[in-house]
Amino acid sequence: MVGASSFLVTILCIHFPPVRAKTYPSSGILSYGLLIMICMFESFYLVIGQIIVYFFLIIVVMTVFIAIFVIYSFRTGKFPFPNVVLSGTLVLEGLVKALFRLFEIDDSIVDNVVIRLRNKISLKRFESLPFDKKAIFLPQCLRSVDCPAKLSPEGIQCINCGQCNIGGTKKILEHLGYMVFVVPGSSFIKRMIVKYKPGAILGVGCISELKGGLDLCHRFGVPAVAIPLDKDGCVSTTLDWDVFYRTTKADKIASESSHS
Ligand code: SF4
Do 128 and 251 fall into the same domain? Predict the structure, then answer.
């Protein structure tokens, strides 16, 4: 029996290295049982420790990898493997931003790239749908400071007074068939998605609002594209209307109406 136990200890010591570093009782079934348990526990903790170290290493490598992709995409406007990079960026967003801050890089470019990635993924779907299945959300900050429009449950009711671009744009878009809303607040978008169930959405806003809006649309399973404002703020913001008209396929009709 003792010989068999010694053999077992020898095997354990070969396969469970921590055993070798210790002095253990030389005889007795209980002692060997204890020894086996110690070996198992030590090996278990060793394996768990290794898994944790590898896990953190993988996270660090992935964070650096995603950060490099974000910088590359932001600088070049190229978005290789958009679905993979988007998923990785969303999962590791906090760490990627922390890494940016560590190297004193503006972390808002992460949000910027997330928006452009979502645009790249959703644009084809947005363009493929007929106009009357799509909704457009314009921010109220694009209005003139003297806007006479009133607030209603369907958003700001533009009366096309001519003091800002929203009136003429809304008219063109509605002529094409789009549902157009001037958004008074972020909760409004959720209410309109639930009410009108658009097949796709285009939103205009500042980067932080757009990111929240795109996340919301994603949760509802609605493909959405976003166009950031040229100048953020609470009033008198500006937009690149050429980009907006091109994206909504309203550029032709917009240029015709501007010449008439
Ligand atoms: S065009 Fe419409 S949104 Fe713009 S200021 Fe006039 S009423 Fe307000």
Answer: yes
Report the nearest-CA residue for atom 2 of ligand 1. Answer: 158
Terminal-to-terminal C-alpha distance of the chain? 105
Q: How far apart are CA 44 and CA 101, in angstroms?
A: 38
Q: What is the pLDDT of residue 1?
A: 44
Q: Are 250 and 176 in contact (CB under 8 A)?
A: yes
Residue to mutate, 163, 174, 204, ligand 1, most ligand atoms under 8 Å from C-beta: 163
pLDDT, tens digit, 9 for 90 and up, residues 29-49: 778 788 888 888 888 888 898
Quote the percentage of the chain above a pLDDT of 70. Answer: 88
Minimum CA distance residue for ligand 1 atom 8: 147
Any idea what the CATH number is for the domain that residue 176 is in? Answer: 3.40.50
Return d(Cα 200, Cα 173) in angstroms, integer.
Answer: 15
